[in-house]
């Protein structure tokens, strides 16, 4: 049943994602009347805190510290519930913000229908922000609906550790879950469609990371596209290999959430399944923006947060900060030890015809790694020999997801590599590795 009520808001935000919730709080401070629509009360706070970064890194922490799986899942649930409540209350307690628990879809440009529990309402605004995130892109293969076949979301709800796990896909989710579930004690096999995992990474680091994962007992089946899952469970691959396991994880990428969003009722353009935006993240409808995973670019919480900054700049600072201003985007892969990367590898820099120098440290030579009794890892950096700018870093080892942020800062600020090389660092720490790492040859 549709009511005639058509309330007008200063801003409507669809989805409780990182960008959306941050924007809602910000606009409320500016005294905008804001509607935030979230389809699932169990997703208040968005993907990151409920089903992604936070729960996975919580159980990773526990796995590395020897906590049993079932205890870890319980702790993860507590952490998530606490953060979800905090996120909800932070916005719901603001007079200017109305949180609707309902599914939003466009009726036409600037008008949305919201399916609430008991009725459907229509609301309107001159400013609409689409922050609906993404979901697992489940491949159209036979057997994906069988019991025991999971996505990254559903596996996190499983109370018992599967004895064996076949993972389809060797990207971020595939490798992180492989590392975590192996540490908990499962037998893990990763089915990789290409000739290897980490194909875009520095070759030496790739080899070191794969060797380390294999030492931990993770098995890789390369050049294998999963084609069918047979009851049992047996995954049949394109190269004839069969992988048998108690559970199967689908980790084959994530696609933007645009289904049933009613975009066909608007002038919002979609390309390759994602919403088209300009450098201010404005869609093809003026004052309607798309932020986060739904725009089909990076799929990280911190890039979604940065999307908020781009939109804020457009609304309040004449758009001086755009997607082009962002600089290099670092990324981290939470295997064990973790891997982090920013900018170019040596090979990529050479292919660009740059005059480059490389720095390299095997972490078994670094004092802090002896303190922590973890000698694993290899750090590499590439610098421009002519202007001394840092071109990139590939860091496989402890604390690399933290250290890469310092390199991002230096790259954006155009700090010459010699500065990081000659900096006074506290001791004994991981960051002091930069004294040697930037001693390039
Ligand atoms: C397992 C996993 C681990 C990850 N780990 C990391 C990590 O360590 N670090 C990192 O940076 N990134 C990580 N990511 C990626 C990161 O979680 C996402 O990039 C980020 O959460 C996307 O946020 P967003 O702002 O696009 O929207 P989301 O947080 O996805 O929010 C979108 C919200 O919109 C709601 N919604 C959708 N459609 C509608 C509708 N029509 N009406 C109303 N509501 C709707 C959804 O329910 C959802 O709550 C991980 C992802 C996964 C799956
Ligand atoms: N640490 C982090 O920041 C982090 C962690 C987890 C997820 N994420 C985000 O989530 C997104 C999704 O992660 P993901 O791992 O699902 O995607 P991904 O794109 O990283 O990897 C998916 C892999 O699955 C392979 N694949 C697809 N179909 C296959 C098949 N039938 N058989 C075998 N392999 C197949 C693809 O070739 C690809 O290598 C990432 O893009 C990332 O941005 C980030």
Describe this protein with a few key phrases.
alpha/beta; 441 residues; binds flavin-adenine dinucleotide; five-stranded parallel β-sheet; 3 domains; Enolase-like, domain 1; binds nicotinamide-adenine-dinucleotide
Task: Write the SSE topology.
Layout: E1 2-9, E2 11-14, H1 18-29, E3 34-38, H2 47-51, H3 53-64, H4 69-92, E4 97-101, E5 103-108, E6 111-115, E7 120-125, E8 128-130, E9 134-136, E10 149-150, H5 152-155, E11 164-168, H6 172-184, E12 187-191, H7 203-215, E13 219-221, E14 226-230, E15 234-237, E16 242-244, E17 247-250, E18 254-256, E19 270-271, E20 274-275, E21 288-290, H8 301-316, E22 331-333, E23 339-343, H9 346-351, E24 356-362, H10 367-371, E25 378-384, E26 390-396, H11 400-412, H12 417-422, H13 433-437
Parallel strand pairs: 1-7, 2-3, 2-8, 3-4, 8-21, 10-17, 11-12, 11-17, 12-13
Antiparallel strand pairs: 5-6, 6-7, 9-18, 14-15, 15-16, 19-20, 22-23, 23-26, 24-25, 25-26
Helix pairs in contact: 1-8, 3-4, 3-6
The structure holds flavin-adenine dinucleotide and nicotinamide-adenine-dinucleotide.
Organism: Ureibacillus yapensis
Family: Belongs to the class-I pyridine nucleotide-disulfide oxidoreductase family.
Disulfide bonds: 48-53
């Amino acid at each position: 049943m549709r009511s005639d009520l058509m309330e007008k808001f200063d801003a409507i935000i669809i989805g409780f994602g990182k960008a959306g919730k941050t924007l809602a709080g910000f606009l409320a401070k500016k005294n905008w009347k804001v509607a935030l629509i979230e389809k699932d009360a169990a997703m208040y706070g968005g993907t990151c805190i409920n089903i992604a970064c936070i729960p996975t890194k919580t159980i990773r922490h526990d796995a590395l510290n020897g906590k049993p799986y079932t205890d870890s899942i319980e702790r993860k649930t507590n952490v998530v519930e606490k953060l979800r409540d905090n996120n909800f209350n932070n916005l719901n307690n603001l007079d200017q913000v109305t949180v609707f628990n309902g599914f939003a879809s466009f009726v036409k440009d600037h008008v949305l229908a919201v399916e609430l529990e008991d009725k459907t309402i229509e609301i309107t605004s001159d400013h609409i922000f689409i922050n609906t995130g993404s979901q697992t892109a489940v491949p159209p293969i036979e057997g994906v609906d069988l019991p025991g076949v999971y996505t990254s979301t559903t596996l996190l709800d499983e109370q018992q550790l599967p004895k064996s796990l076949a993972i389809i896909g060797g990207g971020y989710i595939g490798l992180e879950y492989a590392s975590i579930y192996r540490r908990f004690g499962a037998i893990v096999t990763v089915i990789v469609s290409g000739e290897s995992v980490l194909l875009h990474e520095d070759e030496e680091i790739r080899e070191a990371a794969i060797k380390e994962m294999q030492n931990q007992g993770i098995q890789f089946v390369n050049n294998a596209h999963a084609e069918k899952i047979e009851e049992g469970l047996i995954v049949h691959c394109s190269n004839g290999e069969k992988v048998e396991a108690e559970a199967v994880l689908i980790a084959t990428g994530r696609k933007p959430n645009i289904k049933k969003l009613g975009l066909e009722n608007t002038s919002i353009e979609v390309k390759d399944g994602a919403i088209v935006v300009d450098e201010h993240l404005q869609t093809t409808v003026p004052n309607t923006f798309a932020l986060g995973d739904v725009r089909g670019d990076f799929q990280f919480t911190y890039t979604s947060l940065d999307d908020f900054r781009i939109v804020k700049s457009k609304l309040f600072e004449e758009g001086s900060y755009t997607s082009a201003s962002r600089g290099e985007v670092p990324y981290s892969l939470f295997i064990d030890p973790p891997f982090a990367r920013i900018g170019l590898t040596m090979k990529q820099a050479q292919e660009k015809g740059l005059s480059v120098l490389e720095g390299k440290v095997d972490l078994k030579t670094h004092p802090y790694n002896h303190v922590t009794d973890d000698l694993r890892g290899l750090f590499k950096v590439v610098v421009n020999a002519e202007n001394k700018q840092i071109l990139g870093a590939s860091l496989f080892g402890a604390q690399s997801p933290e250290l890469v942020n310092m390199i991002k800062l230096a790259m954006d600020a155009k700090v010459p590599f010699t500065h990081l090389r000659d900096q006074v660092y506290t001791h004994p720490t991981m960051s002091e590795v930069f004294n040697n790492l930037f001693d390039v040859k």
